[in-house]
């Protein structure tokens, strides 16, 4: 095949890669975007953020409908057409992926479908269906993401063992599901299946779920899961999996006992591994860290001056919005522009469980561990009009504040819809807001956002819908 020459070759078309390709094209660069999958959008669109949120949205109507009985609104028995549900979800993904394709075309980004490998610091080859396509580039941006980590003990040849990728393909409603890992992916997928009527058992090695979130914020999720899952084993391990004709036999150690239990399906959600295998990085000067992620500087440049890395493959927090932010930084550095995407940004996290958990900036746990002077104010959603109208008061808004400067250090929230509120908190942190700033802004009534204002007022001793605190 004829050599393609380009200014920038981007490998991987996830939220990092396509954002980088588009930003570079908008700066007038010739861009080649290489993606091995048939659909653009990466893990986020095809096997991550979007399908999981589509399924969470679709299935949350089941418990919500049951719950509404107490308000005098009843429905008939639930019937789930798994094929139709999956088809609807696929429709959402196709629409979004087509949108990315269209935007690439309009920007004259050349999309090549195939697997890229480096031949040197200015050359790569894309293995396509039609043969090997050589590409000569001035700069390359690696955005190849991660794949589900499957520890050797769980690698058994069984169609009943799934990672999140397979679990997102709903083909049936299994009778029972073992979720290994109490992180956000396991909890979100467990919630989807539990809502559909599957008996979900979760096994987590640590003492709690949702590592990273303050325990008081993850507790309501644990309470929900305890009520809606069949069983949750904390400080427990799955020691073995054995395939059977109609499921999997799991060897579990929990509560000082070891026992076997049969499940229809097993979901392994114990982490992600960097996707570097096919890249042949040995032909470049790129270096990996001890966990296998690409080493980068503050501008996302790797140890090879011609090659940048962004998103999951650059390590740190594995989230789509972090990938897109790093894309902007990398492109700004390559094109010599000043980046509007700041270095060392606040990265909000949202867990789309029921209730949702979200946080940004310093957590209370981190403040304590690092000995940082801080004050915590919490406003219960039980005193929020909007929460009551929604019949859900299991929420809290918590601010971590510097007692000296009164500056906001961090925000954490739990409650249905909390994820939509973290944008305000992130903006406040980035703008260096004080508790006074938050307390003095008019928040629309009745909305959940009022809980941020009321929590900030509490710092000064008195919020309208809470009793005064002694300061
Ligand atoms: P990816 O999206 O992983 O894209 C990498 C792309 O590179 C892939 O398309 C892959 O096919 C391609 N590729 C790999 N190697 C090659 C090669 N050699 N040649 C060509 N192409 C290659 N994040 C959030 O922010 N919010 C969420 O709600 C959320 N939910 C999630 C739910 C689940 C179940 C999972 C698994 C993840 C979720 N994430 C979420 C994480 C999010 O998906 C990732 O952080 C994000 O996709 C990372 O983007 P990326 O561009 O770095 O890589």
Describe what this molecule looks like in 3D.
By secondary structure, the protein is of the alpha/beta class. 30% of the residues lie in helices and 25% in strands. A hairpin with a 6-residue loop joins β21 and β22. The protein binds flavin-adenine dinucleotide. The site of flavin-adenine dinucleotide (FAD) has 38 residues, from β2, α2, α3, β4 and α8. Flavin-adenine dinucleotide binds next to β2, α2, α3, β4 and α8.
Which characteristics define this entry?
7-stranded mixed sheet, binds flavin-adenine dinucleotide, 471 residues, globular, 25% strand, 30% helix, alpha/beta, 5-stranded parallel sheet
Give the structure's gist in a few sentences:
The protein is an alpha/beta fold and 471 residues long. 30% of the residues lie in helices and 25% in strands.
């Amino acid at each position: 095949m004829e050599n393609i020459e380009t200014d920038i070759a981007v490998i991987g078309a996830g939220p990092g890669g396509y954002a980088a390709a588009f930003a570079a094209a908008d700066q007038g660069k010739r861009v080649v975007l290489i993606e091995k999958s048939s659909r653009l959008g990466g893990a986020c669109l095809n096997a991550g953020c979007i399908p999981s949120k589509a399924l969470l949205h679709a299935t949350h109507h089941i418990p919500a409908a049951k719950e509404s009985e107490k308000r005098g609104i009843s429905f008939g028995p639930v019937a789930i057409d798994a094929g139709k549900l999956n088809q609807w979800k696929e429709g959402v993904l196709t629409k979004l992926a087509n949108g990315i394709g269209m935007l690439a075309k309009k920007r004259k980004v050349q999309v090549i479908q195939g697997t890229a490998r480096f031949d040197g610091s200015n050359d790569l080859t894309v293995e396509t269906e039609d043969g090997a396509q050589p590409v000569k580039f001035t700069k390359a941006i690696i955005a190849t993401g991660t794949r589900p980590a499957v520890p050797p003990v769980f690698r058994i040849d069984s169609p009943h063992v799934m990672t999140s990728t397979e679990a997102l393909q709903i083909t049936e409603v299994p009778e029972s599901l073992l979720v290994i890992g109490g992180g956000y992916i396991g909890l979100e997928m467990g919630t989807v299946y539990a809502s559909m009527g599957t008996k979900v058992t979760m096994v987590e090695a640590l003492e709690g779920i949702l590592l990273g979130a303050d325990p008081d914020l993850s507790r309501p999720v644990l309470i929900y899961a305890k009520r809606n899952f069949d069983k949750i084993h904390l400080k427990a391990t799955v020691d073995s999996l054995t395939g059977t004709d109609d499921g999997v036999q799991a060897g579990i150690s929990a509560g000082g006992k070891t026992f076997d239990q049969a499940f229809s399906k097993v979901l392994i959600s114990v982490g992600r591994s960097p996707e570097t295998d096919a890249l042949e990085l040995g032909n470049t000067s790129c270096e990996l860290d001890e966990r296998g992620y690409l080493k980068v500087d503050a501008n996302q440049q790797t140890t090879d001056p011609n090659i940048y890395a962004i998103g999951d493959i650059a390590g740190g927090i594995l989230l789509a919005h972090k990938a897109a932010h790093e894309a902007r930084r990398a492109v700004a550095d390559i094109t010599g522009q000043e980046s509007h995407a700041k270095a060392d940004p606040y990265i909000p996290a949202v867990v789309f469980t029921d209730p949702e958990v979200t946080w940004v900036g310093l957590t209370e746990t981190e403040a304590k561990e690092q000995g940082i002077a801080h004050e915590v104010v919490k406003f219960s959603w039980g005193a929020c009009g909007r929460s009551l109208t929604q019949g859900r008061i299991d929420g809290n808004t918590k601010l971590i504040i510097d007692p000296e400067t009164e500056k906001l250090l961090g925000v954490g929230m739990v409650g249905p819809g909390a994820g939509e509120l973290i944008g305000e908190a992130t903006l406040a942190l980035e703008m260096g807001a004080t508790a006074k700033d938050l307390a003095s802004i008019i928040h629309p009534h009745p909305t959940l956002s009022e809980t941020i204002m009321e929590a900030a007022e509490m710092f000064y001793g008195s919020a309208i819908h809470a009793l005064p605190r002694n300061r």
